Structure to design on (835 residues):
């Protein structure tokens, strides 16, 4: 039984949903951050799956772009997280609510 | 046409003087330096003015004007307005007396303003005024004239408001400025209408002179070749020559203080006395007369406008003279007298006696400047007392002022030999014999009668002024209840003066003030001899020509008398002599058309002599009445109506100024500005604020909240595409 395209897509959808739910429900910044990475990689999986399915290399190229962006985002995001932690001694995003009216 | 670039120095020397005094004089604060710069710069103008007027091909000796084209100001197609100066016979005479009288007044002012803290400022303004006035006179087109016109208005404003610590000075300055704006409105519209009229004839022009080098044809020439308009009320707003004339005359009523815009001039006496003498008697206020005479080609083509000018002039003359009868402030009397004399000049213009009007302008400049400076000397000697009720017997204390003022007094009353007699008599004669087309029968005689009554009143109030000031009992001693209060005020005013003199005793003024007085008194005495009419000069034998008229006659256009058919052809035109195209040689035969008019008809001459005799009688009667009335009772109560100036100011307040104030405050400010404009802005702003307050709740400030919003947005977009995609699929399937 060879893996079908739909399997990859289903897995990708599941991973993405987990990521979305995690971002919304989790309070820990690190966890939210990991959930964002999860969403990005779910999308990557879709790209790779379609790339293989259509025999088209473009999908794989996009994956690289996404990974680059993800790396940059991780660097910036982690920097922000460290800065927040230093000032607030907490990783709970609900504590960082200065913009609240 | 004679070109000479030195001509511009006449106007730029005072400008340089003003700049030097303003920038350097204010640092040095040296009265000697400032006075020297001010008088020196005007002196240069004076010397140049005399040179240009009397040199062999000068303005007064040749028919061609001396011109100086400085630079092109505006050029649109064939239309152009240049910064060019021109001195012809008319502007030549004006420049001569402006610079000369101006110089004397500058010298006087160095004495009068001595010790004033704003010495440099005063002379900078005064020099700036000279610059503007000379630009007005020498400008060779309407636009440049208007520049000078506005310039003198500005300087007048600055100088009326010169005493910044004087309560009535600032409102008086504003009043003068605003009344002049009303007149300027007419002037500007008149210039525009001239532009359109000449453009309709194919060559738009606002120039006074032909300038072949620049390809400019004189606007006056173009209008002069048009047909004269008829005598009818409808021509006033028909947009033709009569409308131009009336609009220009509105400008003149503002600047020259005629009914209905005369109210600013009496208030303008809040300025220093030399200013009153220079600006509000001798020069600036006669700018309106200059403009009317300069545009005589326009006015002679508009008989309706001429008649209105004559009536306004006569009415103003009589009206102001009656007010002058009852004023107690020495300067106010002279101010109303100025208005009255300006009315005379306009009356002369209105009957086509332009030469007589200019003659009176000139003699008036002499004797009125003399009287004002004399009153300044009195005020100076009395330590800034202006109320004639507190003077009396000053001839004992200030003999030079007294004697010189006597010359001015006799001149303005019209006693023979003194200057005012010749000019006033000439005006009265011209009015009596006026024969302008369309004028209702009897109007000329009625105007003459008004003029004669005015002459009588003039003699009475001037005698009253002299008697109250120089004769009778001394009323400035301690005998008045409010003297102590007054004294305190004066001590504060000029501590230097009261330290060196007993404050009760008037003193004669210094030499810098008496010399101009003497010179002007001499001019007031003999200045009229340049224009002795034939009817009188032939009595004495001697030189029979009227020199003044001979000089000026070619420069103004003449009224086409109804009878003179073929002579009438040659008349209007001489304003700018037609240049012969061949070699630019002056092709003009000197005043051919004016000769027949002077064909000394013996009947007319005897009539003129009779009228002159009547004028003398009137003058002497007036002086007699004044003398006996006020010698006996110098403080006689005058009719209250006159003392309050017919309540004109109050009427203007109630009918014009107050409605404008109320409309501005209640309508424009409180309703339109606060209600409408502010209302719109507040409504829009408030709506934005309320909208923002509503949607601010979206910004909850929690990271996960934003994440949820993003998710919702993403879901909506995906849902939309999914829905649309489903529809597309469906259409494929079908």
């Amino acid at each position: 039984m060879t893996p079908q395209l739909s399997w990859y897509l289903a897995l990708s959808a599941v991973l993405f949903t987990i990521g979305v739910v995690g971002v919304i429900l989790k309070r820990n910044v690190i966890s939210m951050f990991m959930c964002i990475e999860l969403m990005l990689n779910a999308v990557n999986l879709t790209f790779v799956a379609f790339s293989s399915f259509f025999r088209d290399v473009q999908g794989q190229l996009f994956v690289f772009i996404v990974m680059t962006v993800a790396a940059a985002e991780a660097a910036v995001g982690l920097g922000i997280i460290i800065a927040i932690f230093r000032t607030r001694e907490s990783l709970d995003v609900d504590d960082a609510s200065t913009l609240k009216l | 046409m004679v070109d000479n670039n030195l001509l511009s120095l006449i106007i730029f020397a005072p400008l340089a003087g003003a700049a030097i005094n303003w920038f350097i004089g204010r640092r040095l604060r040296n009265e000697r330096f400032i006075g020297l710069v001010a008088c020196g710069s005007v002196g240069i103008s004076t010397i140049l003015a005399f040179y240009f007027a009397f040199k062999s091909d000068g303005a007064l000796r040749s028919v061609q004007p001396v011109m100086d084209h400085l630079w092109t100001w505006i050029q649109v197609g064939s239309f152009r307005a240049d910064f060019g100066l021109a001195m012809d016979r008319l502007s030549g005479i004006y420049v001569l007396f402006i610079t000369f009288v101006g110089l004397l007044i500058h010298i006087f002012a160095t004495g009068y303003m001595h010790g004033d803290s704003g010495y440099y400022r005063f002379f900078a303004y005064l020099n700036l005024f000279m610059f503007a006035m000379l630009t007005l006179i020498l400008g060779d087109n309407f636009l440049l004239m208007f520049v000078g016109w506005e310039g003198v208005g500005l300087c007048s404003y600055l100088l009326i408001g010169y005493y910044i610590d004087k309560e009535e000075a600032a409102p008086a300055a504003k009043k003068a400025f605003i009344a002049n704006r009303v007149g300027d409105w007419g002037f500007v519209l008149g210039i525009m209408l001239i532009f359109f009229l000449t453009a309709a004839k194919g060559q738009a022009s606002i120039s006074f002179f032909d300038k072949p080098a620049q390809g400019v044809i004189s606007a006056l020439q173009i209008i002069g070749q048009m047909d004269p308009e008829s005598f009818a009320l409808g021509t006033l707003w028909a947009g033709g020559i009569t409308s131009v004339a009336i609009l220009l005359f509105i400008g003149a009523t503002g600047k020259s203080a005629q009914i209905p815009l005369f109210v600013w001039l009496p208030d303008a006496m809040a300025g220093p006395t030399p200013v009153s003498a220079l600006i509000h008697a001798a020069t600036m206020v006669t700018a309106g007369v200059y403009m009317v005479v300069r545009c005589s080609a326009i006015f002679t083509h508009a008989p309706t406008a001429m008649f209105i000018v004559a009536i306004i002039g006569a009415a103003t003359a009589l009206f102001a003279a009656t007010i002058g009868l009852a004023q107690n402030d020495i300067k106010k009397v002279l101010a109303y007298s100025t208005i009255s004399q300006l009315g005379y000049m306009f009356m002369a213009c209105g009957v086509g006696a332009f030469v007589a009007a200019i003659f009176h302008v000139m003699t008036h400049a002499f004797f009125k400047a003399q009287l004002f400076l004399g009153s300044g000397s009195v005020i100076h000697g009395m330590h800034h007392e202006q109320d004639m009720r507190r003077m009396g017997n000053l001839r004992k204390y200030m003999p030079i002022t007294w004697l010189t003022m006597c010359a001015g007094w006799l001149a303005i009353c019209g006693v023979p030999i003194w200057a005012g007699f010749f000019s006033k008599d000439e005006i009265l004669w011209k009015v009596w014999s006026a024969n302008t087309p369309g004028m209702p029968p009897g109007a000329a005689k009625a105007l003459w009668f008004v003029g004669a009554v005015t002459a009588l009143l003039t003699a009475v109030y001037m005698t009253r002024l002299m008697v109250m000031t120089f004769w009778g009992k001394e009323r400035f001693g301690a005998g008045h209840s409010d003297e102590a209060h007054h004294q305190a005020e004066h001590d504060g005013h000029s501590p230097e003066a009261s330290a060196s003199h007993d404050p009760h005793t008037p003193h004669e003024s210094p030499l810098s003030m008496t010399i101009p007085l003497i010179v002007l008194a001499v001019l007031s005495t003999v200045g009229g001899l340049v224009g002795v009419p034939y009817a009188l000069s032939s009595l004495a034998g001697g030189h029979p020509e009227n020199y003044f008229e001979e000089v000026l006659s070619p420069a103004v256009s003449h009224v086409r008398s109804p009878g003179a058919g073929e002579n009438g052809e040659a008349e209007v035109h001489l304003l700018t002599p037609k240049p012969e195209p061949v070699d630019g040689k002056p092709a003009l035969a000197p005043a051919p058309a004016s000769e027949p008019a002077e064909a000394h008809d013996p009947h007319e001459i005897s009539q003129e002599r009779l009228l002159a005799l009547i004028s003398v009688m009137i003058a002497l009667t007036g002086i007699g009445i004044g003398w006996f009335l006020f010698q006996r009772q110098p403080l006689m109560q005058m009719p209250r109506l006159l003392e309050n100036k017919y309540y004109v100011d109050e009427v203007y307040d109630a009918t014009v100024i107050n409605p404008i104030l109320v409309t501005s405050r209640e309508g424009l400010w409180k309703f339109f500005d606060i209600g409408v404009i502010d209302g719109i802005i507040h409504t829009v702003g408030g709506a934005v604020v309320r909208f923002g307050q509503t949607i601010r709740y979206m910004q909850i400030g929690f990271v996960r909240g934003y994440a949820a919003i993003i998710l919702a947005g993403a879901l909506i977009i995906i849902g939309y595409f999914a829905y649309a995609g489903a529809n597309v699929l469906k259409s494929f399937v079908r």
Notes: The interface with chain B takes residues 20, 23-27, 32, 93-94, 96-101 of chain A (CB under 8 Å). The first helix of chain A runs from residue 5 to 25. Helices of chain A lie at 5-25, 29-54, 58-88. The radius of gyration of chain A is 17 Å.
